[in-house]
Amino acid sequence: MQSVDTALAKGRVPKSGRVAPPASRRRSRGVAPTALRLVAYAVLFAGVVVALAPFVWMIATSFKQPQDVFTPTPTLLPTDARTGVWAPTLDNYLQVLGIGGFATAFLNSVIVVVILVPAKLLLDALAAYAFARIEFPGRNALFMVLLATMMVPGVALLIPKVFITQELGMSDSLTGIIVPNVISAFDIFLLRQFFMTIPREVEEAAMLDGASRIKIFWSLALPLARPALAVVTITSFIYHWNDLLWPLVILSDQEKYTLPLALQALVSGRVGQPQLVMAGAVVAVMPVIVVFLIFQRKILEGIALTGLKG
Amino acid sequence: MGTRSSGVTAPGSRQGARRGKDALTAYMFITPAMLHTLLFMLLPAAAALYFSFTEWDMISPARWVGFANYQEVLFNGDLYPDFWKSVRVTLVYGLLAVPASLLTGFVQAYLIDGIRRGQPFFRLAFYLPVITAEAAVGAIWKWLYDPQFGLINAALGFFGINGPDWLGTPGTVVPALALIAAWQSGSAMLIFLAGLKGIPRSYYEAAEVDGANAGQRLWSITLPLLRPTTFFLTVTGIIAALQVFGIVYVLFSSNIGPEGAGLTYVLHLYLAGFRNGGMGAASAMSFLLFAFILLITAVQFRVLPRQYEE
Amino acid sequence: MTLHRKSLAGVAAVGLVASLAACGSSAVSAGTTVDFWYYQPTPEQAAKVQQLVKEFEAANPAIDIKLVEVPKDDYNTKLASALAGKKGPDAGYLDQPQMARYAGSGQIAEVPAGTVNEGDFYEGALNTNKVNGKLYGVPLQQTTVVLFYNKELVDTPPQTWDDLVATAERVHQAKPNIAGVAVPKGDGFGAWVFPGFVASAGGTMLDEKNKKVTFAEPPAQEALGLWRRLLQSAPRKITNSELPFQKGLAAMMFSGPWDILGIREQFPQLKFDVAPMPRKAKEASNIGGDNGVVFSTSDQKDAAFKWLQFLCGESHNAAFADITGNFPTNVKAAKKSTLAGDPQFKVVLDQLESAQARPAVKDWIQINDDYLAKAIEEAVDGGAPPATALNTAAERARKLLGW
């Protein structure tokens, strides 16, 4: 058991990536001569331009009027194709939000993450805590089962999962998006690792004071695990907000579409009208970018720490 | 009933009572997770195997056909003329996309590690493409790749290059996909960056004393010490590349691209199962994929621990 | 929420059965909801369909129609999996060639006698609803394909294949950035249009009586040869930009009446007209259309058939077909169609007379979308000899059909 456990930890998290020491100036390899550093900055800035250009293009197109979209020389700003006068429009947004069904899809996506993410966090943390801290018969065997499921690629179980979800009467509903995704073995594993780092003495003191396990979990372990919980919360939010495949196979009724599905329908249904598609893309992408910008430091460090793929 | 009854069964030991109650709490804590694992992981795993031996369209009951699905998928070119094509597309995609995103990610990380100011900004900018929903990535790049009005060919035209019809010519489809993967190199960048920060400063100082220049230090210290990180990223990258779906589904609006050049393994599986009603065959395909990924994971476990001993 | 509504519907169904037993009339209990699936139209069209629903609900206060819009590309996939999940709609569109498959597996209900009068419909459209002589749906609308041309690039529309090639070359030579014609590709659409060309060259697709696959014979080879030839004056790099004709990048295209509406609505500045398909041996085009069916799982069959009756009936069939740019299937309604007076639609209506019905075998969709589409792609874009590509497809079709 123990060996599988550690091997897995190593497999997921290479040693060199495990500890990220504070990036103090001393440690940085930025002792390179100024000239070299200038080259590095130049290349990095060029890279940033490439990385961000698609977003800029998306936003610019989304504000263009239909007749200004197809220009032989691309214009970055929403200007009139013939006169070059500044001519942005909000029509595309009004169209996709109204008739394009994006307002409904936005609401559906919000409902999914607002229910799914906290539920997942709580259930995963409960299991993780039990596996980390409580001795009980069958613990190792059950944890092994959980670990084994982490190796199974999501696609492999797609069809029977759809089948079971249908049999449970949850297909074509938001429940069918939430329930089958409410547990993540990887998150349990991650949180367990974190709970194990909490010193036992703290818990033992509380126990001597007569605190119950539930109380210890709720008012001691959970608050101490806040950094790990934050990483899990934000990565699950991003994952489920963006997920396309599961909603695609579960949902049929457009009234229940989540944003990625609505966007996909827009791409194939509004052929030749990129201004509408880009407005839809902005609506789908912006919430994630905003959340990310707010919590970026926590997420980036957490991801580097855990080897999690965004 | 907790404390008292278990106190009776284990008399004379308050700790025994505590343990009994603890075990009960633990089972309570893990019940949701284990039930979910049973219902949505273990049961589907068994079902996936079973269904792969049946002819099944999700509507009429499954009919046992033995190994017929495996045989037809692998060897019957009349029934599944595109199976091996999808394998080839996926492998070529992996061969291009994984090195492309690793190389980009490494260069980004190396440069970021070498500068003093602005590290968080660059990290953030390069990570944004990773958190963007697949559906949106597809929508945006479909428009970027437009052969007449797309930004990419306009940019190439600026340098006097007559850009190809990226998504319309069989030969350029997979490279176009790999370019998107390189654009999304942010996760590799983060993990490489953590790896770089983990290399002890003293190694470099010793090398400098010996008169090694920046290139030599990169070659003989940085790269060898990053080998576990690279290996980890390669394996996880390959596993992810084998399952690529959303991006092609959106780019080709649920079609297969010119001459099937965009037909990845999972897209083929999806179309065979969900569109043509061949759930049995699709289950066989998912099982084959699962076996292949398991093989890669096994190789990873075999190789990685040895890496650590160095 | 969904569960709740469904169980309410179940209760309503029980009530329905009871009331049926009691008085023997096809009364529909109050608060009945019919889920109706159809292809996601443009927003403007959707609003008009909603208007029709209101009219229906005003006439049938006990029934609510819930429209569910599904993107056309995903329609069959979504439908199959919804039915499998027992969450299928009460009624919906069904593509003509899907009828045999769904009827065969018992998933669509037979149309009760007296629901429609068969003599009211165009025979071709009605017959696509019959499987083994029984009626499983009602024809809602029909369509075909004609030649679209950009009036600023083409003065007189070509009438023959030779004309077509010459016109396309002339345009492309004069303006290398413009393609002569948007050549159909090896996808579902291309394979759907293809039989019209084959028929024009004097050929057929299948000989169902003698169980022979005929789409590899010389007429079909000539049709592929034509497309290949057209490609020389129509580089894909130009036509692969979405909607090349609408954006003025292609001088001609083959498309249906929905694009007449679409262009008027969304590309008003484009000066275009339509003409009959260029011919080789004879005039021909292909046919398409959608039928309305009620699913066996529905517990609202009476109400669902009422809605279908409404859509295909004399008074509303024209309005419904007009919305999506298709043609009425009801003969009397066709006379009322506002589109009949429109010169561009008149061209399509005339073309409909020479439109070729699709083979009525249950696997046609797979032969069409998988085998033929692939052969077209290999021969047109890949440059393989048409005979080789078509023979491979025909061989596969023979195996699939067991002929």
Short précis:
The complex is a heterotrimer of chains A (310), B (310) and C (403). With 310 residues, chain B is mainly alpha-helical.
Q: How would you sum up this structure, described in words?
A:
With 310 residues, chain A is an all-alpha fold. In chain A, α2 (34-62) packs across α14 (274-306), α4 packs across α8 and α13 (259-269) packs antiparallel against α14 (274-306). Chain A has two domains: 2-62, no CATH class; 99-305, MetI-like fold, CATH 1.10.3720.10. Chain A has helices spanning 2-12, 34-62, 91-97, 102-133, 139-150, 158-167, 174-178, 185-196, 200-208, 213-224, 226-242, 245-250, 259-269, 274-306. Chain B is mainly alpha-helical and 310 residues long. Chain B is 74% helix and 1% strand. Chain B contains 15 helices and two strands. Chain B has helices at 2-9, 14-51, 68-75, 83-114, 119-131, 134-144, 151-158, 170-183, 186-197, 201-209, 214-225, 227-242, 246-251, 265-275, 279-309; strands at 54-55, 63-64. In chain B, α1 (2-9) crosses α2 (14-51), α4 (83-114) runs parallel beside α8 and α12 (227-242) runs antiparallel to α15 (279-309). The longest helix of chain B has 38 residues, at 14-51. Chain B is globular and about 70 Å long. The termini of chain B are far apart. Mean pLDDT of chain B is 87; it is low at 1-12. In chain C, the strands form four sheets. In chain C, strands 1, 2, 3, 6, 13 and 14 form a six-stranded mixed sheet that branches. In chain C, strands 8-11-7-12 form a four-stranded mixed sheet. In chain C, strands 4-5 form a two-stranded antiparallel ribbon. Chain C is globular, with a radius of gyration of 22 Å. The model of chain C is unreliable at 1-27 (pLDDT under 50). Chain C has helices at residues 2-23, 43-59, 75-84, 99-104, 123-127, 161-174, 188-200, 218-231, 236-239, 257-266, 301-312, 317-323, 331-336, 343-352, 364-381, 386-401; strands at residues 32-39, 63-70, 91-95, 130-131, 134-135, 138-144, 146-150, 179-182, 206-207, 212-213, 250-255, 272-275, 285-294, 355-356. Chain C is of the alpha/beta class and 403 residues long. In chain C, α7 (188-200) crosses α8 (218-231), α8 crosses α15 and α15 (364-381) packs antiparallel against α16 (386-401). The longest helix of chain C is centred in the N-terminal third of the chain and has 22 residues, at 2-23. Chain C folds into two domains: 30-143 and 287-356, Periplasmic binding protein-like II (D-Maltodextrin-Binding Protein, domain 2, 3-Layer(aba) Sandwich), CATH 3.40.190; 146-285 and 363-401, D-Maltodextrin-Binding Protein, domain 2. The chains are: A mainly alpha (310), B mainly alpha (310), C alpha/beta (403). Chains in contact: A-B, A-C, B-C. Chains A and B meet through α1, α2, α4, α5 and α6 of A and α2, α4, α5, α6 and α9 of B.
